[in-house]
Structures are given as C-alpha cells and as structure tokens.
Design a protein that fits this description.
Blueprint lengths: L14 E4 L16 E2 L34 E9 L16 H13 L3 H4 L2 E2 L8 E11 L2 E2 L3 H10 L4 E8 L10 E12 L12 E3 L5 H9 L3 E4 L16 E12 L2 E8 L6 H13 L7 H8 L2 H5 L11 E9 L29
Parallel strand pairs: 5-13, 8-9
Antiparallel strand pairs: 1-13, 2-6, 3-5, 3-7, 4-5, 8-12, 8-13, 10-11, 11-12
Length: 353
C-alpha cells in the first residue's frame, strides 16, 4: 500500500495512510463468487486468525476478547452519511454497519455473528466518510476478490461504496491497529448557500476571519488532555482523554473553508466541538488564545460558556485512517487486492452505413 500522505514531525512511527487515495469505480452486478475451502497446511500464514478485540453478536465493536479461526479481509469504505444514524450497529434507524453487514451476509452466506465486522471509526449520524476502514472474517478463502467486491457494491445502496478489498494479516485490527485519523470539516461561508454543497458543508453567513481561526487552530497542535472538548453521553471504550494533534490546517477555497485535522485519535464529538469553537473565534466573538485556557480546565462546562453545541454533523468527513506499514502488508498466498472492475466494451461487429 502506497503512502501518499507525508508524516508530521510529531509522528515517530512508520505509518501508511489507508483511505482517500483510490478513486471510486462503477461496478457491475455481482457474478457468482469463487470460494476455496479452508486449507489445513500449517505453512500457509493466511489461516488460523486469532481475533482479539472485536465484540460479540450484539455489538462487534465492544472490547471483548475472543478467538476466531478464519481469513481476515480489509475493506476501504466511503459513504454519504445523510440518511444514516452513524456507523454503529442498530436496526432502526439504519446505520452504515447494519447495511454493510446485510450485504456481507448475502454475499458470503454467513451469519452476522460470524463476520465479526469492525470499523476503524464509529462516525456519528449524518457524518460522511471517504476513507473508513473495516475488517471482517470468513472461514473460507477467496481465489479472487473481484467477484465479492462487485457483489457487495451490487447489494449496497448507492450512497455506500466499498472502494477496495484486500487480505489482512492476522495482527491487523481496523480499530485497534489505527495510529492516526484525518478529518475534514467544511464550512460554506457566504450569504447564499450553494445548493450542491448543502449536504456536505455547514452554511455560515457571518463573515469568518480565517487568519484568526488559523492562529487558534495552532493551539490544538501537540499532545493535550481534550476532556473539555468531548461529550460524555456515550461510552467510547477509549477513556484516555490525552490525544496528539499532528496538524490543524484552515484551507480557504473561495466561499468554502475547510478545517483539516490529523491526530492520533479523537473522542466522541471532539472534532465537531473544536470546529464549533473555531467558528466563534472566526466570527471574532472571542480571541484565539481562549483555546489553551479551555484546554487547561479539562472541563466540558468551560467550553459550553463559549459555544452551546457542537458543529452540525453534515460538515464532517472521515478522510483517512493511518496504520503502521507492517499492519498493511499482505499475507503470503493471498488473492490480489481488488480495486474494482471496469466494464470493457468490445468493438461492434456490425458495420455502420
């Protein structure tokens, strides 16, 4: 897997960006899938996956130790989160994980509990993703991944797409192996909203000062306790509030203002809370140096004095997840990574007159 993202100085591990690098391709309807039974040869390193970290049938993301024999597969997934209640599994209203698992059960003929599907990031309702990463397990091998890839995209709705499928080493875990994530938050800063941006950017009519927003964003860079920027209404399974922010850029593209943040990890609504504070600073309602003062309190109530709510979810997008290079290595004897198949149009044999 190629590393197309440069590493920040604060990162001292060799990491590869997985997500946001492969263009989506239109795929045909699913043909029959070719499967190979689980081989018993001990020399094949692509068998006997011992899965630790994924949860049970009710919630595969719960931190529960268990052992699973089989083959592990990595998915690169993009979705428009407008219609969904986030990633985390629940039947109604539908979630991304729920819809993806239904497609996987149809394509693999396995029960949901046997797939052990886990996502790298449990995005909130209305949040989008270009580079979500997930993994699942099957008791059988595939000779080729192109057919299962085409089958999944044929079964999924058009606002969810599997961009890539590859084999994964037993040590890889979509969530627990992640070393960093990149999020973008888009703001459309103009008097009249662009209708083509309405689902993917937050409309702000107040004129924003991008310079002071950049000054404030720089205060987030480094390792901090982000307790003041996390909502505590959900048990995230990751209680440590100390996170590292590698970069926080404010990119202006005409009326579009894009907040680009890369860090070791993010807690519940942390990015949206940081974006909400930067919006108030951009409106020049509060000074940029308020950021370190709020961070120092480690108190969510302190942030509430300056912004009443997190920025709306539809402006946020998970762009990429980063992993150590060894976790992205392909196992020995595995099928070739599938990036999707293109239709080939043969030449017409009937002459034109």
């Amino acid at each position: 897997m190629e590393n197309l993202n440069s590493l920040s100085p604060i990162q001292n591990k060799r990491m590869t960006c997985y997500g946001g690098v492969v263009a989506a391709a239109a795929l045909p309807s699913p043909p029959p899938t070719t499967l190979t039974t689980l081989p018993s040869s001990p020399s094949n390193t692509f068998v006997r996956v011992r899965e630790v970290g994924s949860g049970g049938a009710e919630d595969p993301n719960t931190v529960v130790k268990q052992s699973v024999d089989g083959f592990k597969w990595r998915l690169l997934v993009s979705y428009d989160g407008t219609r969904y209640k986030g990633w985390q599994f629940q039947q109604t209203p539908p979630t991304i994980q729920c819809i993806l698992e239904k497609a996987l059960t149809q394509a693999t003929k396995l029960e949901r509990k046997d797939l052990h599907l886990v996502g790298a990031s449990r995005t909130d309702g209305g949040v989008h993703a270009w580079g979500q990463v997930a993994h699942f397990i099957t008791p059988f091998n595939y000779d080729s991944l192109d057919s299962i890839h085409a089958a999944l995209n044929g079964l999924l709705p058009p606002d969810i797409r599997v961009r890539e499928i590859s084999a994964a080493v037993p040590e890889f875990h979509a969530r627990f192996s992640a070393q960093g994530k990149i999020y973008h938050y888009k703001i459309y800063n103009d008097a009249i909203m662009d209708p083509f941006q309405r689902l993917y950017a937050y409309h702000v009519t107040n004129k924003l000062n991008a310079a002071v927003m950049r000054e404030a964003a720089n205060h987030f860079i480094g390792t901090h306790d982000f307790s003041a920027f996390v909502n505590s209404s959900r048990n995230d399974g990751m209680p440590n509030p100390v996170k590292a922010i590698f970069r926080f850029d404010i990119v202006k593209m005409g009326a579009l203002l894009q907040l680009e943040v890369e860090g070791s990890g993010f807690m519940y609504r942390q990015v949206r809370n940081m974006a909400a504070l930067l919006l108030q600073i951009g409106k020049e309602a509060i000074p940029p140096d308020i950021v370190p003062k709020i961070l120092a309190t480690r108190d969510r109530k302190e942030l509430a004095k300056y912004t009443s709510a997190a920025a709306p979810p539809h402006g946020l997008c998970l762009v990429a997840v980063k992993y150590n290079a060894e976790h992205l290595q392909l196992p020995l004897g595995c099928p070739t990574t599938s990036l999707g198949r293109h239709h080939i149009v043969s030449k017409c044999k009937v002459p034109f007159y």
